[in-house]
Amino acid sequence: MGFAELVDIPEWNVRRLRAKLDTGARSSALHVENVQELPHGRVRFDVRLHRKKLDRRVTVEAKVVRRARVRASSGVSEYRLFVRATVKLGPVSEEVEMSLVSRERMLFRMLLGRSALARRFLVDAGRSYVLSQKGKRRGAA
User: Fold this and answer.
1) Does residue 81 surpass a pLDDT of 90?
2) Which of 70, 79, 128, 140 has a beta carbon 3.0–4.6 Å from 16's, enabling a disulfide?
3) Model pTM above 0.90
4) Which one is the CATH code of 4-119: 3.40.50.620, 1.20.140.10, 3.50.50.60, 2.40.70.10?
5) Phi and psi dihedrals of 44, rounded to 5?
6) What does the alpha-carbon distance between residue 57 and residue 139 come to, in Å, rounded to a whole number?
7) Three-class SS of residue 72?
8) Does the pLDDT of residue 26 top 80, yes or no?
């Protein structure tokens, strides 16, 4: 697969979300907004599906699987909430643990780290959208 792919998270009704595949990052991260911790170890958040079209979003409720300190690419450490969901990359579905974070300034709404990619995928850093056909995106960014 390429360094960038379009992924689906079917259980959350998220389709064709731009994801960067980053073998240098250990964990995966998802851009979310309006995070609200709920009783019984749950969390509610909005997944913004498009960088420019602010109204394109899905509200999700999920179980918090852990809280952990993560060192961002900037070198700053912060505590993040982690959730799990099945992510579909081309023909392959994989359960992925991801942190909830603001990726507001990033081009990709999701980052898939090596924990999600290990033993299943080979990333060709010189290519993009190998498993997904970017031209059929229907307005996603």
Assistant:
1) yes
2) 140
3) no
4) 2.40.70.10
5) -120, 140
6) 13
7) coil
8) yes
